[in-house]
Every structure is written in C-alpha cells, then in structure tokens.
Amino acid sequence: MKCRAAATLAALVMLGVAGCEIDTELGIAAEVTSASLTVDRATDRYVARITVAFRVGENAQGVREFVPLRVDAEAGGAAATASSFDRPAGFSGVLSPGDSRSVTFVAECLGGCNAAALCGAGGTVPIDFFWEDRGVSPPALDQTSGTATVDCPP
Predict the structure, then answer these.
(1) Residue spans per domain, the chain
(2) 35-58: b or e for each residue (b if 16 or more CB lie within 10 Å)?
(3) Cβ-contact 131, 142 below 8 angstroms
(4) Could you tell me where the beta strands, DSSP code E, fall in 2-154?
(5) Residue 62 class from Cβ within 10 Å (0-12 exposed, 13-18 middle, 19+ buried)?
(6) What letter would DSSP give residue 13?
C-alpha cells in the first residue's frame, strides 16, 4: 500500500510540474511588437513609432522602472540613431512584480541621422531599442531587437 501511495504522489507531482509554467524573469522583459520609420530625405531626419510590450516577472524583488532611451536603425552597415523620445500622456514605466504594459513611443532623429540610407534598405530594417531599468542600483542598461518598416515619401 505504501508503494502505491508513493507512486501516486510521484505521478501527481510530475503532472503538476509538467502543466505548470514558472515565471523566471527577475527584472524587466521587453519586446518590440511593431515599428515603423518615416524618413524625410531633405532634412536627413526620421520619426520612429515603436510599440513595446514590457513586463516585470512575478518573482521579481520589488518595483522596477522602465525608461526608454533610444532606438538604432541599421541600413547599409551604418546606424541611424533616434534618441528624442516622446512618451504618451500619463505614461509611467513603474511596474510592480507581475505587471505588464504595451506602449507606443515616438522617437525622432533630429539631424545627422544617416536617414537617407534607410530608404535604400528594401522596405524593412533591423532596429535595436535601448532602455534602462532604474529600479535597480546601479541602473541596468538593456536592449531588445526588432524589425521596422521604412516609409520614404518623395
């Protein structure tokens, strides 16, 4: 009888572990879910619209603060950096463990951007979205990559 009970208990434990998902993220996880770049060839500037989903793991130790820093787009081996972010009205990057948000940020490259190179990239370019977690000391710099569509009006 003891062997049968032990075998049943072991089977239940295995089933519970196999069907259970454990959130192992201890900080902020971020993902670019959509991105587009609109280029102004005459001024060598572009505007980036980037939607980012970010969350803090359920088991994180304390509140985290997500701060967008810049986005780099690459075309022809050269980077075009946008670093002037507009945050939506009421935006707060402060997240408690288990919280998540999805936000669209607008970033502008205000000159010297190599923006014209983006127009020859075939319609899409790789991007790197850089952000900081200010909920830890010292603040932690991180990035997530994605792909952006490029619009180059005449």
Answers:
(1) 23-151
(2) bebbbeeeebbbbbebebebbbbe
(3) yes
(4) 28-40, 45-56, 64-75, 78-82, 84-86, 94-95, 100-109, 124-133, 140-151
(5) exposed
(6) H
77: three-class secondary structure by DSSP: coil
- Residue type at 116? A
* Residue 20, C-beta contacts closer than 8 angstroms, at least 6 positions apart: none
Bridge partners of 51, per DSSP, are 34, 104
Structure tokens at 122: 């075939």
CATH code at 23-151 = 2.60.40.1470
- Which pTM value belongs to this model? 0.78
**Model confidence over 71-127: pLDDT tens digits?**
888 877 777 777 778 888 888 899 999 999 999 999 888 777 778 788 876 788 999
Residue 34, SS3 per DSSP: strand
